[in-house]
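chain below, 574 aa
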Amino acid sequence: MKSLDAGQEICTVAASIPDNAFNVWDDDFVQSMQTPYGEPEYRQRAETLVKEVKMLLREMQTGDHVDLLEGLEMIDALQCLGIDRYFDTQIKLTLDSAFRSWDTSFGIRLGSESVSCRNLNATALGLRLLRLHRYDVSADVLESFKDENGHFTFSNDKDECAMRGMLNLLRASSVAFPGETVMEEAKMFSSACLKTLSQRSGDTYNTSFLKEVEYALVYEWSRTFTRWEARNFIEIYELDDLRLKDKKILELAKLDFNILQYMYKMEMKNLSRWWVNSGVSKLIAMRERSIEYFLWGVSAADTMEFSSIRIAIAKLSTLATIMDDLFDDYATLDQVKLIKQAIVQGWDVSVVKNIPQNFKMCIEFVFKTMKELINEATKKQGRDMMPFITKAWEDYIEANMEHARWKSSGHVPTYNEYISTATTSAAIGPILLHPILLAGPALSDNVIEKMFLNKSRFYELIWMCIRLIDDTRDFEDDRRHGEIASAISSYMRDHPECSEVQALNYITNLVEELLKELRWIYLNPDNSLLDWEKICFDFNRGLQFLYIFGDGITYSHKEVKHQVFKVFVDPVVM
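prediction:
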């Protein structure tokens, strides 16, 4: 926050905002996007294919020779292709059968009862799928695949079937829970084998298998989302159509992808027009990321019925970015206090009249949009949601003011002091509250307070994972722009003997441990799945995805631009 006289106009260029922070997605381009997949004929064909694939699955489950591994591989394919939501009943039948066959010591046996017939591929695949569907299975079964020295063994790296066991072992490790050492060992062992494999010529292995290995080494389950995975696995299965029982499965996946993409295109057009009409980009220099935030929204809620949630996440993230960039690059502390007062007094823009005009116009846009979103949440919940939403924004601004005090005084807080404030200053609260209010049924005040204002452990973990992954990617940039407080610097304050590299490694490893705990809470067999919990969990997965290659929000002109094209712009060729 800078020192400005009350009537001084804000400059239109902020030194800390890089050139590549401006809008990657020209509105004319967005408005020009066309696709035929909104026509009724495509939905009708998809509905027919769903019925035919259901018949195929019933035949697989009731034939004379039911193959459990084949059934698990089919479930895996349906999930990877993003069409499993159509087949919940059929999937449950197969998983119930797998769970009945599950040996607590050895996992899944195929063939005879001989110890030599234990199958790593089936057990690793079954472990992951059963956990993802909240069956109570222990990772200890993987101990039976170690040698007498307690090490995982691998006998034949020329056999693609055996290597698929390695692939499924790696994928199983992505649903590890806290304290599961065997899962960490499985991850290290399988990833080492697969990295060696991925460097070899495709003459030995099927191209589709190598592509699958390449994908798994980069995008583990906690750092990907359904539409991205569907697009990639459509391409993978196209390279080897023999892996699917029937070509209708791939046709359905393609149609489903393109039909949803049509819907996203329409939503993107509305969102892009909303942003252009705001005029904010002509008032101040700031990060323009409404389309990238829409990708985040799709990662959290991708199906037809959740359009309002996707749009809300994109808009709220954009509003938070406006506020962040105003606070960091333009506003004085006194001006920010005025904004906080205006929000507390019912989003009353008249409170902030004694600030520069272009600053005020930005705030007017934020307040106008917030009132629209508050009305939407109020209508959904059947009572006034302004107190909860206002409290979330009040806490967010107060946390930002604390950051400003640290910055102006040169104070490096302790780690505990930092994290208690920084999780709130990341604006996850204001952004995440809306999916809860829009996706859930009418919720009591006590439920909302328990889930959100008091930050239950589930939500606390989401906030911490997002805050900390951002710090690991941005702390060098932030330091160049005058920010001295971060999880890394605070950890170094608490541990003077620790180098910056060691502190960074500690925080990076801490994120992994927090993700395990979050998975445990979410996939706990005793947890009843609620729509808003799934959305919030996937909200974190989406942010982790955007940060795989660095800060994909601030620097969105590389990997994230490619990802937007694959999910939103380019349809799958039928």
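The radius of gyration is 25 Å. The chain has a mean pLDDT of 89.
thats it, cya
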